[in-house]
Design a protein that fits this description.
Elements: E1 2-4, E2 7-9, H1 17-38, H2 59-76, H3 78-87, E3 95-99, H4 105-114, E4 117-122, E5 133-136, E6 147-153, H5 161-171, E7 175-182, H6 187-197, H7 203-215, H8 219-229, E8 236-241, E9 248-253
Parallel strand pairs: 3-4, 3-6, 4-5, 6-7
Antiparallel strand pairs: 1-2, 7-9, 8-9
Helix pairs in contact: 1-6, 3-4, 5-8, 6-7
């Protein structure tokens, strides 16, 4: 067996129709991605609610969706990015807080990797948490548990600008640092999700995943919101965007 033009063929035989067709689709996808990179089209932010935000979904489907989301965070490097940021903290970190933690899958991995106390808060805590404590709380308005570092994943795009500003202010009352990791509203990650991720996950995650990207803020918008929220304070804000617009991270250090 040898390799010809990127697909396997038997020696002395012609490539099968299936192989040629798959290769053609791959080349077409790469050309599509190239056009998206060259054309920085502006997407209007969607205000449509996601399926997981609603009621009436069977518990088994919800649990499966959150398991898949935990694996997606691991696959895309989101969990690793949070862990790395906490490890680089100049001060000792004894406790971390996950805001909007869902079923606590990411929080459990962060706790295991860092060896710290971990607490989660969510509007809809799971029926029974297997791992770190998860309490019912609203990150926008409720007094949050005290922690050294708070983080959230894929929460910011669920909030309007006013609520997001309030979340940023509220976290500062209980934590000295806040890591907000979210998606980026851009055609490139949307197209990549449709082609490479959506076919591998359940319909609930595939549908909400695409809508999440459409609901997300652009880097310019997110940084502006953070600056507005912390205007007049001594807080320090850092913002970074990963290659291919896979994610963006707000890194906020609150100062008295």
């Amino acid at each position: 067996m040898d390799i010809s033009d990127g697909f396997y063929v038997r020696s002395g035989s012609r490539p099968s129709f299936t192989s040629v067709n798959s290769f053609a689709r791959h080349r077409s996808a790469m050309r599509t991605l190239g056009r998206i990179v060259r054309n920085q089209a502006v997407m209007q932010r969607s205000l449509k609610s996601e399926l997981l935000d609603g009621d009436g979904i069977p518990e088994a489907q919800i649990a499966r969706a959150y398991r898949q989301l935990t694996r997606i965070h691991r696959l895309l490097g989101d969990t690793r990015a949070i862990i790395a940021a906490v490890r680089e903290d100049p001060l000792p970190v004894g406790c971390v807080l996950d805001i909007g933690c869902g079923r606590g899958g990411v929080l459990k991995e962060v706790q295991r990797r860092l060896g710290v106390q971990a607490i989660g808060v969510d509007l809809k805590p799971p029926p029974a948490a297997d791992g770190p404590q998860i309490i019912a709380a609203n990150g926008i308005s409720d007094r949050l548990p005290a922690a050294d570092v708070a983080f959230c994943m894929y929460l910011g795009h669920h909030l309007c600008e006013g609520d997001l500003r309030q979340l940023i202010r509220n976290v500062g009352r209980s934590c000295r640092r806040f890591l907000l990791l979210d998606l980026v509203r851009h055609p490139l990650p949307l197209t990549m999700f449709k082609m490479f991720m959506a076919p591998l996950v359940c319909n609930l995650v595939a549908t909400d995943g695409q809508l999440s990207i459409r609901r997300s803020y652009t880097p310019v918008e997110l940084l502006r919101i953070a600056r507005e929220a912390l205007a007049g304070t001594r807080a320090h804000i850092r913002h970074s965007t990963s290659p291919l617009y896979i994610r963006q991270i707000l890194d906020i250090t609150y100062r008295p």
